[in-house]
Structure to design on (184 residues):
């Protein structure tokens, strides 16, 4: 049931829809219930965007961790460093919003297969590559990630209601544009 609900929310975010009637917690007793007023300002779109973007960023991190030991170029090392710094900063903000929105500890989107979501198979494949082969594959995976992040952030920016998530989506769009310019 949770998977189907998660997929429905993903669909709403991807098409830019907004279902503001869904404000309740998941029923998880470990969800943050200390600030019900603050948590209620997060719509289903805001919450789904937080969870999906967090999952995407968390699954990108292992790919970024491979860059220094697998690339043969300073440009790709620099790109990996910038993408890593951006991703870590974004994750800090997403985790803060996650807690504030009272979302469950277990992310229903973790491990989901969708465009731009780096999979364990992609990490394994990238780990077997070196230098130019790694660089090409890394840039392709990063480009796919950035393209999907842009689509999701545009959906949140146009359909989200919580000012903090809409603001973060705007910053994500700026950063994704900057990083996309570095991916050849």
């Amino acid at each position: 049931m949770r998977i189907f609900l998660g997929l429905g929310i993903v669909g709403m975010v991807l098409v830019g829809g907004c279902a503001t009637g869904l404000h309740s917690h998941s029923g998880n007793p470990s969800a943050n219930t200390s600030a019900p007023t603050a948590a209620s300002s997060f719509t289903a779109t805001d919450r789904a965007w937080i969870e999906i973007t967090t999952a995407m960023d968390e699954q990108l991190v292992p790919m970024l961790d491979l860059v220094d030991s697998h690339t043969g170029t300073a440009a790709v090392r620099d790109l990996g460093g910038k993408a890593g710094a951006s991703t870590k900063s974004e994750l800090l903000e997403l985790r803060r919003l996650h807690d504030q929105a009272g979302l469950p500890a277990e992310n229903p989107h973790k491990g989901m297969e969708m465009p731009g979501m780096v999979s364990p198979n992609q990490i394994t494949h990238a780990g077997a590559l070196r230098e130019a082969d790694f660089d090409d594959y890394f840039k392709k995976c990063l480009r796919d990630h950035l393209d999907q992040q842009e689509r999701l952030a545009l959906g949140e920016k146009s359909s989200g209601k919580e000012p903090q998530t809409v603001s973060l989506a705007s910053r994500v769009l700026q950063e994704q544009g900057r990083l996309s310019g570095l991916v050849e």
Q: What stands out?
A: The chain has a mean pLDDT of 84. The two ends are 41 Å apart (CA to CA). DSSP finds seven helices and no strands in the chain.
